[in-house]
DNA sequence: ACGCTCAATCTCGTATGCATGAATGGATCG
DNA sequence: CGATCCATTCATGCATACGAGATTGAGCGT
């Protein structure tokens, strides 16, 4: 699961997780210099990372201002969930068409992992696995593009839940719904599976209520923490000096 | 419709059109230097443009090789059409839910434009307008994200048709099908509209047969032509020298 | 005391340079 | 005569430099 580890991927992953876990609250400024300093790379690369995060809807980078963590509006949230419902339905449909017995075990494995994480009170991990379920489902559809889109949608939904959702139920009410969906898939009951999925989405979506104000965070500390967790080391990474000839 | 005109948008639009019109055949190398020279910008910006085109599936830019015009595989083509069918259905559904009388006129206007272009034998323009119909439909759904996805999908479909499709029927068999879809939308008949749309997609999709080899093209000539058409001037644009203090 | 203007500073936009890795053509060997 | 290996050339990866726009804080005026 872990990437090859080009520094640029580390920075991308670190920022993504930091945003999704709300360690970097919406509205937080993300200056290219500072980020580059902490990850040991130049603004050129940071810029690429921020561009990618923007295309994923996690960062808002307007023409000549400092990029900030995205603050999804309710309208955007509605759009995201709407499209996601549609693609989830399609994913379910395709998965049933191309069903193999191994699929059930694979999905159940994920649900178990999520359960385990939740029992360990690792809410963030559990939340991530909850989203992973849907991405895996899309992957099982055999459609790479669908998987990509679903991945992006799940990410955006996570941010939306982090912003508008109730503080601690990070992504899902419980994995029970996932289990039911798996059962319907296994039975080949497309209509029921889609119905369940839709209900599931409703539950997730119906947590668009609260609101919070973007407080200032110690960007440095957060980055160091996340970069460390991912790269396996901590603290700021110094820029690689000119190597000896 | 025309952009504000940052050079970077011009380059992006020019390359996009050149690729979709098959003036730059799949496999054609796209060196950053050369492109930059022709659009009067540095490799830094070209790189950003190429990255965007890659994310749109029009360019293939592998780690350390020169970027090339994308060569979609049949598997990719299948994925694209599959997802597009799903989103088209959803778009139709939403448009009917939020229908306003003005929608019909708007869509019909596009169809008429397409007809006119086709009568003038401007196949490329007609093809573009044919795709535009679907993007507009998605826009009328009121879902910005859906519009974005549809836009990307239509673009990719255009490339696929350019590669695998029959030489001259550039995007659509005819606007008749569009007219029928509009009628169903106006009648609020979601099932029929979705059925028509699906049939329409089938027709478009069923043109995955031929193949062609990537011949070498005079990149310079093509770029000059397309840059001229978009920017309103022609020829290579010299890099802006250091301006006097 | 409050608001406005302007200057100092913080970032971004973009070009360019240097180093490294791929592509290519020629020379050599079988 | 053909294939392979190596050197040269080309194109990219990345950092850095410089100029310009945005931000903000201080000083002035009312």
From TrEMBL, chains A, B:
* Record keyword Transmembrane helix present: no
Task: Check the record and name the InterPro entries matching this protein.
Answer: GntR_C, TF_FadR/GntR_C, Tscrpt_reg_HTH_GntR, WH-like_DNA-bd_sf, WH_DNA-bd_sf
Per the record, the domain of life is Bacteria
Any GO MF annotation of the entry: DNA-binding transcription factor activity
Q: Which PROSITE patterns match?
A: HTH_GNTR (PS50949)
Key words of the record: DNA-binding, Transcription, Transcription regulation
HTH gntR-type domain residues are: 5-72
Record keyword Transcription regulation present: yes
Q: Which Pfam families match?
A: FCD, GntR
Supply the name of the protein.
Transcriptional regulator
